[in-house]
Amino acid sequence: MNLPTTQVYPVIWHEGRVLLIDQNRLPLEYALVEISLVKDMARAIKTMIVRGAPAIGVAAAYGMYLGAREIETDNRDEFLAQLEDVAQMLRQTRPTAVNLFWAISRMLKTAYETLGSVEQIQASLLTTAQAIQVEDLQTCQAIGDRGLEVLPSTPHKLCILTHCNTGALATAGYGTALGVVRSAWRDGRLARVYADETRPRLQGARLTSWECVQEGIPVTVITDSMAAHCMKQGLIDAVIVGADRIAANGDTANKIGTYSLAIVAKAHDVPFFVAAPLSTIDFELPSGSLIPIEERHPSEIYQIGDTVTCPPGVEFYNPAFDVTPAEFITGIITERGVVAPSQLQQLQLKQPA
Ligand code: MRU
Which CATH code fits 145-350? Predict the structure, then answer.
């Protein structure tokens, strides 16, 4: 298997514990946080030490193993009952990214299907968590390569605009939308990435630009409100974003600001792609209006570092995600190919049983 070349792995299994890159401290500081207990993994997901839909899924999978390891019983039924509590603790961390729920379900399935002792179930859970991680690396590399098939053909090298962070940090180690960017760079088709800074948590300014600098990819950070102006000036050939959950009709939840970016792209005739693994598609939800949207603490809006930026008496609304209607999406890039949002069902048929 050809593993991606990037050296950035946000979740690392090392000598019986998990190491997470603390994404709240980047780019000022590269620090690893050690996690040995499931409650600490739940906190790390909630506080966004680890973030990005596929990375949250990988972290939750290891969280399930850590929780399983903490259960002190040899009785299989008691063990499985307590594992359900572990799953519930992890489910309550962040509501929007479906990869979290997907990974937890897969881990539970492993537990129920493993015959034998509690010790054997625990061992299978670790193997499954590691498999989820390796599969995500392979999946993202496939997404990167599939994305190349639909990038516009232009006489010049491409400028791609992206939102939030969808790179190695947000996955097991390669990226979805930024994976396409990475593949385009590798193939000599990319001139530059435009990265929305992505208010309020600045994943674009802090994380996407950091990853691009690590890889030597030319990157220009703009504030979210500059996207329309850049498109009008002809600076952008395509927009590629990631997803936290895609409903069966193609409506896509992603970082707040994605919806307005899609509208602006349509107004300027710029293709707008969503890149995501099949594990991000929630075929049980018929439309995006049913996707739960996380609301985060207002301090993300009224505070920059320790500095308060608004006067007292102001109210805030801080949804972390929005839903882009399918009609604004040119294509959805997955590891199995690129489809129009209206054709997503074809991918469900292709999923292994
Ligand atoms: O709140 P975050 O930083 O977890 O949000 C991340 C995003 O919205 C990403 O675009 C999405 O998870 C796709 S990551 C490959």
Answer: 3.40.50.10470
